[in-house]
Write a structure and sequence with these properties.
Blueprint lengths: L6 H16 L3 E7 L9 H8 L6 E6 L6 H13 L3 E4 L6 H23 L7 E7 L5 H9 L5 E2 L11 E5 L2 E4 L3 E2 L7 H10 L9 H15 L1 H8 L3 H4 L3 H12 L2 E2 L3 E2 L1 H14 L20
Parallel strand pairs: 1-2, 1-4, 2-3, 4-7, 4-8
Antiparallel strand pairs: 5-6, 6-7, 9-10
Helix pairs in contact: 6-7, 7-8, 7-10, 7-11, 10-11
This protein binds guanosine-5',3'-tetraphosphate (G4P).
């Protein structure tokens, strides 16, 4: 989906999500497990902070494409901050039960409060929020596949909005909330571009692929060498030379046998995005600062 975020779009997204939040009890924030910080949106924090009782679940999606060790480190990192975190593959049914259990658990304190006040309890209502391409629709489809029933529109809600009953006492809004990515931060934007969260037309592939290849050579050198059959020497070269070697290896050549670097870049991006370069995570949790004993 082509989404370019301009101030007008952002204001609208903020308004829409603000409205959605009014009827939501538990928020499921989807981020990309390969870039858990770059795929964050600062607005969400703001919206939740204003509502201290609004529980949130952080779902690191596309975990099937991310480095499992890095994903565990990220999950520990967020959990240490008191954030309920799950690792997810939206395409697989396996995460469904886990996510539903977490949402219900997150909604429990709220249900308790209602009960204590003698209010009639109702279903816990949840929404999937996240930046474009992070897997929101895929997750909703996977969750809704074995849905129990569609409940009718309720008065006072956005017209046409449907709730899907996922389990006893749990309903999901069937349209996700779309947040904008952090494209103002160039480093985050390059990571978003590498994962495909930003349209290829709007970023400089040269820079993105250079950085990606440099990072892969550093942290996932084996994967890189295996995929493109590179020698140790080729693999250790600077990213531009690595790209030229990939072009040669894969036959991405212009007439006269000159390396077709544009084609090689597309190849690398496709391989990375589809997991053919192995399970790769592009950012790691900030190192814990050690407190030196005086
Ligand atoms: P959105 O609603 O947040 O914009 O994202 P959407 O569900 O449309 O997913 C964007 C792309 O990411 C889709 O690929 C989808 O299949 C893929 N995807 C979503 N969740 C996961 C996941 O957990 N793991 C993996 N590996 N991929 C995931 P696409 O190429 O655009 O479409 P398709 O060819 O797969 O249908």
């Amino acid at each position: 989906m082509l989404i370019q975020w301009y101030p007008g779009h952002m204001a609208k997204a903020k308004r829409v999500i603000g409205e959605q939040m009014k009827v939501i009890d538990v928020v499921v924030e989807l981020r990309d497990a390969r870039i858990p910080l770059a795929s964050e949106n600062p607005l969400l924090q703001e919206l939740i902070q204003n509502k201290p009782h609004k529980p949130r679940i952080l779902a690191l999606n596309k975990a099937d494409l991310a480095d499992p060790q890095a994903s565990r480190a990220w999950a520990d990192y967020f959990r240490a901050q008191g954030v309920r975190t799950v690792l997810l593959d939206s395409k697989a049914k396996a995460g469904r039960k886990l996510l539903i259990r977490e949402v219900l658990a997150a909604g429990q304190p709220m249900l308790e409060r209602w009960r204590r006040r003698g209010l009639r309890t109702r279903s816990v209502r949840t929404i999937i929020l996240g930046i474009p391409n992070v897997g929101k629709s895929t997750l909703i489809n996977t969750l809704a596949k074995s849905y129990i029933a569609h409940t009718a529109d309720r008065p006072g809600k956005t017209r046409g909005q449907q709730w899907v009953r996922l389990a006893d006492g749990l309903e999901l809004m069937d349209t996700p909330g779309v947040l904008w990515p952090k494209i103002e931060d160039p480093a985050a934007a390059r990571k978003l571009a590498a994962t495909g969260a930003i349209l290829d037309e709007v970023f400089d592939a040269e820079e993105v692929v250079r950085e990606l290849l440099g990072y892969l050579a550093l942290r996932y050198g084996e994967n890189l060498a295996a995929r493109y059959d590179l020698t140790a020497e080729q693999r250790a070269a600077d990213p531009d030379a690595v790209l030229a070697a990939i072009a040669q290896r894969r036959g991405a050549l212009l007439p006269g046998g000159v390396a077709d670097l544009d084609k090689a870049r597309r190849l690398v991006l496709n391989d990375f995005r589809s997991g053919r370069l192995g399970r790769v995570t592009l950012e790691l949790p900030p190192e814990e600062t050690e407190v030196a004993d005086e």
